[in-house]
Specification:
Layout (H helix, E strand, L loop, with lengths): L3 H20 L6 H8 L3 H5 L5 H24 L5 H17 L8 H8 L5 H27 L9 H22 L3 H16 L3 H9 L1
Helix pairs in contact: 1-2, 1-4, 4-5, 4-7, 5-7, 5-8, 5-9, 7-8, 8-9
């Protein structure tokens, strides 16, 4: 049986995650937190030392939810290169139907905490590094399967993919136009196509 305190803490994190990711850490007030959780200030701080601790827990929750949606998308593919494509499509899907209100928590927190909350900034950096490592692993799998040029540094490819996708998310939100993200996806697919080993291109041309 799950203890009531555990349920309450998880509820606070879930509600706060949506609030912070939509409104921002600095713009979200204690009154806002009390309104979305249905708890008094003491009830919230009975589980968290302060707002910073709640913000970090909420951010990590948002990243888990966002990451789960991406993993489910990637797992639809069997070929290594298709896993990379599915990752890209997963980011595109998140623009149309965000796994968590407010969209990508990585982008939101990275922009807001560039010079702000150092504790939260450290969590954002760790999350970005984990994402980058994940994409790099997918790229290496495709390289080992001879589906991407192994001579190109995998981290460079992964960095370009993530930078492009996060930029696409930002532009789509700024202009309220998903076609900005569609353009990024199209260009990333062309970029990966150009990274195919030349022998693969020759063989395909003969078919």
């Amino acid at each position: 049986m799950v203890k009531k305190g555990v349920v309450t803490k998880e509820l606070i994190v879930e509600k706060a995650a949506a609030l912070f990711n939509t409104r921002g850490y600095y713009r979200a007030s204690m009154s806002d937190l009390m309104a979305v959780t249905g708890l008094e200030k003491g009830g919230i701080y009975n589980h968290f030392e302060n707002k910073d601790a709640l913000a970090v827990a909420s951010f990590e929750y948002a990243v888990r939810v966002y990451g789960l949606a991406l993993r489910q998308k990637i797992e639809q593919a069997s070929e290594p290169i298709d896993k990379v494509y599915m990752l890209i499509d997963g980011f595109r899907d998140s623009v149309v139907s965000p796994p968590i209100p407010g969209g990508c928590p990585l982008l939101n927190c990275a922009v807001e905490n560039d010079e702000g909350n150092q504790l939260l900034k450290s969590s954002v950096l760790a999350a970005f590094e984990k994402l980058l490592s994940t994409v790099q692993s997918l790229v290496r799998e495709a390289q080992n399967a001879n589906q991407l040029d192994a001579k190109v540094d995998s981290r460079t490819i992964a960095t370009f993919i993530i930078s492009s996708l996060e930029g696409g998310i930002m532009l789509s939100r700024l202009f309220g136009d998903v076609s900005r993200m569609d353009s990024v996806v199209e260009n990333l697919r062309a970029y990966l196509h150009d990274l195919r080993p030349k022998t693969i291109e020759v063989e395909n041309d003969k078919v």
